Amino acid sequence: GRKLAGGFIQSWTSTASNPDTTDEFSRKMVSTEKIVFTHTLQKSEWANTVLATGDLVKEVHQIKQRPGVDIIAYGGGAFVTSLIENNLIDEYFLFMNPVVLGQGMSIFQGAKEPMKIRLNETRHFTCGVVCLHYVKA
Q: DSSP H helical segments within the chain, as ranges?
């Protein structure tokens, strides 16, 4: 989504361009094709980045028809909610952080009917974060 893209892309670009970095992941993030969904931007200012300005459902279906590897969607709650609402997500990687906020927006608020998903894998990290990988049942 556009709201996340500016800081996200700039951060990886800054890290990758640092001559002292040994972070290959940041270089991979910069060199990977990125698609920013937006209705406000007129042109992309970032390397390897194109804008998707049309209908979300049509744009995502077109992207899914391309040959290649998996698609990862990064975005804020409203963007992810739109993807869920339109049944555009095939797998969920939910990262549970060890912080209780007591309030917040549910990304699943746009689900029109119950979703049948199956836990495929769990991973835990030393920082306390747990990743729950779900697939459509």
A: 2-17, 24-31, 56-65, 77-85
For the stretch 76-125, pLDDT in tens is 788 888 999 998 999 999 999 888 888 877 888 878 888 899 999 999 99
Q: Which residues contact 4 (CB under 8 A, 6 or more apart)?
A: 74, 75, 76, 79
CB-based contacts of 86: which residues, under 8 Å, 6+ apart?
56, 57, 60
Q: Any idea what the Cα angle at residue 136 is, between residues 81 and 28, rounded to 5°?
A: 70
> Which residues on adjacent β-strands are paired with residue 51?
36
Q: What is the pTM assigned to this prediction?
A: 0.79
